[in-house]
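Re: duplicated header lines in exported structure tokens

Our pipeline writes sequence and tokens for each protein into one text file. With two proteins the header for the second block appears twice in some exports. Here is an export where it did not happen, for reference. First protein block:
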Amino acid sequence: MKELTHIIPDGFTGKRLDKYLCDTFKIFPSRKSAYKLIKKGMVTINGDISTPNNPVQKDDAIRIILDNEYSPVYKRKLHVLYEDQYMAIVLKPPGMSVNGNFAKTIERALPFNLLQSNNEDALSVPAAVHRLDRPTGGLLVVAKTAAAMMNLSRQFQERRVKKVYRALVNGKIQDNGIIDADVDNKEAVTAYFVIDNIPSLHINWISYLELYPRTGRTHQIRKHLADLGHPVLGDSQYTHNGPLLRGKGLFLWATGISIEHPVHGWLLNVRSDVPDKFYSYLEREKRRFEKFNG
């Protein structure tokens, strides 16, 4: 058994306990998982057993007892870009879920790739602090201790983490811009910068973008670009009009992250280049276009 302690900050009074836990602690893959743990009596508020619909109040002391239920390790090698006793940053392959009730998830692969922390509040297994869409690959922040989990989760919640993405999109975008449009009735802002425009016989034009999401809504970048009329290549979910690139996966990658170390306080700036498929596809499309046009 491991336990987490947490004090409710200002601004969350009245929120349901299960929703607060799911939104705050990324160890809960869903609200249902938080609900189930509360119903088992593993969560207390100010020392008292609570219920899932209990409204939290500012300065409430939350205590969470985590089950050590057996979860088989997924023995898949991941690229680890940073690791210490408190946290790690790994590359998530596209096509894998970060967590959930699946045999092959990133979190089930973490014990195979990371060393167990020797701190007193070490998590029984490392846990992802945030999520990436299943088809999206790139940098993923992982906590190895309870204190690190709370600190890193708070940074994401307070929008202090800077994230960078690269994407290939359908159509020609000539100017840099900012998309300020709600996603699921919540504020969502994405800034984008044009790296290049490549002519294509199949798609007409492909734009290579660097993106800076200022909020972290579900599918935010994919929805914003689709609403702009330039869906990410390979995005079958949000490509409503125009050609759909099939069989090559989603051309969206989390390439950069800047986050404060949860213990030492220094700023970690980690970058990852996009996969080779980005460059090979652009080169192939450019070559075909030039050949066809003499």
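Second protein block, exported in the same file:
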Amino acid sequence: MAGILLTLCRFVSRPTATLVRPMSDQPIAAVILAAGKGTRMKSARPKVLHEIAGKPLIGHLLAAIEQLGAAQCAIVVGPNMDSITQAVSPVPTVLQKDQLGTADALKAARSVLSDFTKGTVLVVFGDTPFIAPNTLAAMVAEREAGATVVVLGFEPDDPAAYGRLVTDQTGALQAIVEFSDADDQVRKVGLCNSGVMAIDASCLFDLVDQITNDNAKGEYYLTDIVTTARRQDLSCRVILAQEAELLGINLRSELAAAEAAWQNRARQAAMESGVTLQDPQTVYFSWDTVLGQDITIGQNVVFGPKVAVQDDVTIKAFSHMEGCVIRRGAVIGPYARLRPGADIGEDARIGNFVEVKNATFGAGAKANHLSYVGDATVGDRANIGAGTITCTYDGYLKHQTVIGVEAFIGSNSALVAPVTIGERATVGAGSTITRNVPADALSLARGDQRDLPGMAAKLRSRLKARKEAMKKS
């Protein structure tokens, strides 16, 4: 599958420009703060493991950091968050035991970054999945241009209760003021704080160690690093991003909104790359969906993880796919289900209410309706009739079915694996096949038909009398 993903198709993702990498050779490290309990999600699952397009929130962020070429990365987690450690492996996690604020969280990463004393440390949040690699690259470039601290800001239509970024006439950042601490003049400032920062590694922990917890909550706030740096005449700057990049996830409703935003971008990207979506709002992609050109996708089609589709494919309405490859010219659906391991050959047909799992269909092969084909190899131009089932599981083990080139399987047949249907063989409708069928053979495996004249009328009379008797009793 890897070759197809890389050479035959295009990746459906949020559209981004070519990554603008920092010109300097200075290294980059990233610390992802993910220790928040996410109580408003009302979930036993850590917030950052909730998914958008089939990928955890933190996974989207890690992908952006990977594109940036970070030399090191650490994820700060809270107690009882082993599931995050497992999900992000081999990226290391560190524990913030007492959870006393964002600066305290950053201190937890000290051991991982002990040898990282030159370059830039990015501090990002695990519940903000949409930050673009180019935005992070711009922050790094601004830091390397001479700033000690670079803060990512944005200008929302409604600043609401966001913290404000106070700058001077030259654009230098003077302070981050929380909304609750801001006077009327500061609240009029439209430049808001995202919390994302790029900090000079050479003085990172010197600055963080000077942050105090002299506030109402008794916590150590990373936002105070700007004031600490300014007291030492160190430069602090702001880089702007679009509000959509900084969407944070704290509620199920926000998760749904983020999913909708991601899907809309993926749909637009697909259409711009040569895919026809007949009803775009009803098509759902996965984060790793791969599409070629001149594909037509009908209404209410769902792509699960690991789906690759080559050129000139038609996917009709109400089809569901995951873990499969659909090759050039194939037609899928309507109401088809392709499960992991399905490999649909060129110009093959998988029709309505057909389920395929761990099976390969050769070029031009057909299963047009009402069939289950699993753990099988179907040869080129083979034709599988309605109601056919490959019986693969004996209660303990799975077994393989092989259907040869140009074989014909009659309707309502059961192929009991392990079994091979030879090339150009025909299986008569209603057969249960338990032995291999030779090439070019006709195989019939069903009981003889018996006709009993007049018996239907006698049976109806007897059943009617029984029904009337039951009504009277």
